[in-house]
Structure of Alpha/beta hydrolase:
Amino acid sequence: MSIRAWLVRRKIRAVFRPRELANAPQEARLKHFEVALKASESKMPGAPSDAVVETVDEGVVKGEWISVPGAREDRILMFNHGGGYVWGGPKQYRDLGARLSRAMKARVFLLDYRLSPKHKCPAAIDDALAAYDWISKNNPGVPITMAGDSAGGGLTLAATHAIRDSDRTNPVALALISPWLDVTGSGESVQANREKEVMLEADGIKIAGQVYSGELGPEDPRPSPLFGDQAGLPPTLVQVGSEEILLSDSTRFHEKAMAAGVSVHLDVWQKMHHVWHMQAGIVPEGKRAIADMAAFFEHHWGN
């Protein structure tokens, strides 16, 4: 294991501690995640000095706009952060948001959705839909793309299912980064890559999945959008590391989406850890993956 991978693992496993949280009451879990979220604010890289950050608090719609010089007014990326649905927010994603804005020449909206265990599924989906509607209403005619990492990738897919099944206009394209699409943990890679994975633990994602799905149950296609109907989705890019325990979430989604006639491209990055894009400042592959996302969206902006 490389030093950089070890450091990444230490950070995330400080949040997801399955042995301590497995039998803990909800109040204890909630307190743990609140403390971990607050502590991470000073440890995660912030926005660069040339980035403009604008806080949004419009009732149920909360988040941040982030953009760098050169970002176009006629391009919007809505980004849903990861963190197992129990951790994370715009502050932890300002560095990545700015990198995405720079690479894509777009304004980026970092959604601040409600977290479990206090708010279970479908609260996060409802928040994503409200934000999507708000962005669409306030930016008529501007093409919107959507992306997310890990749990945010699952939220991106679940929200797009709901958008497709309504009278809304689909995002013009999606990007799913190391997406967590099956909170049951039934993928073959959960066990096959158990010794290779440097960030997540099978027990940890199982607990987070149970906490998030709540009364719906982990097999419901809202917390586990892998089990939903994939027909009618916009063009989709999936990026995942070859040694992730969530690899099977991406490969199974790719198969289902292809069978449903979706234009979907799967990129499996060799020996990459979970959401390596977050370490783009020190991991060259992170910069290249972001550049690939930008090239994918460039093809679909239509402007």
Notes: Residues 3-301 form a domain with the Rossmann fold fold (CATH 3.40.50.1820). The chain is about 40% helix and 15% strand. Residues 1-6, 35-40 have pLDDT under 50 and may be disordered. The first strand starts at residue 52 and ends at 58.
